[in-house]
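Appendix B, record 7
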Amino acid sequence: MSKLKEERAYRHEYKFLIDERQRAELFYRLKGLIPMDPHVAAEGSYWIRSVYFDDYRDTCFCENESGVNERSKYRIRIYNVSDEQIRLERKSKKNGMTCKESAKLTREQCDMLLKGIPLPMDTPEAADYPEVLKQFLVLMMTKGMRAKTIVEYERIPFVYQNGNVRITFDRNLSSSMEVQRFFEKDTLRYPVLAAGQQLMEVKFDEYLPAFIKENLETGKLQQTSFSKYYLCRRYSVPCAGGRKR
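Structure tokens (predicted):
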């Protein structure tokens, strides 16, 4: 049963690089079909900021570059540069499908992790840590898992209950190395994609309803393998052969 639950946790995830014209066309098609995420602000979007972690060997980065079939990466995520909701997330990929597990963090816990300080494991509270947090702390202590880079972007999300469908448009993708300023709005960031270039993600469980699939067909979309973390670090991480990206 536990294995079955694990398999069910994985979802389909398809990514497409698009331009502003394509986004506008797809946005207006979807707007009349399925609702937007109820968490969006009045302007119809929200900002996501994540700080990604990697070990002293940059294993997460290198596995992504090599296309390792089964791999995971850790990040802490907030919304609209606020500490109201802070979550540690582990995103895993297996056989082309993805699974996300998460744990709530307090601001104090988050600040410790950003500084590279593992949360105490010998306190009564530690017994109640979610499993994903426990495993992350072990990696901090054994493999030197530390905060590496901030990834930030504006997200326009649509959701549809049947099939647990989520379609998102991510634009204004930027990166920052100032990980200790994670909660500050004026961090020094630099754009990652070319002007006007954006990312569309289509996520669903077992099936994508036909009427949604039909409206996503433009004849010009090309699926891509895209990792925001990889893209934000590729020019600064030494690869296994010693080259610089």
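Remarks on this record: Confidence is low (pLDDT under 50) at residues 1-8, 240-245. Strands lie at 11-18, 46-54, 71-79, 82-94, 97-104, 146-160, 165-176, 190-191, 198-204, 223-224.
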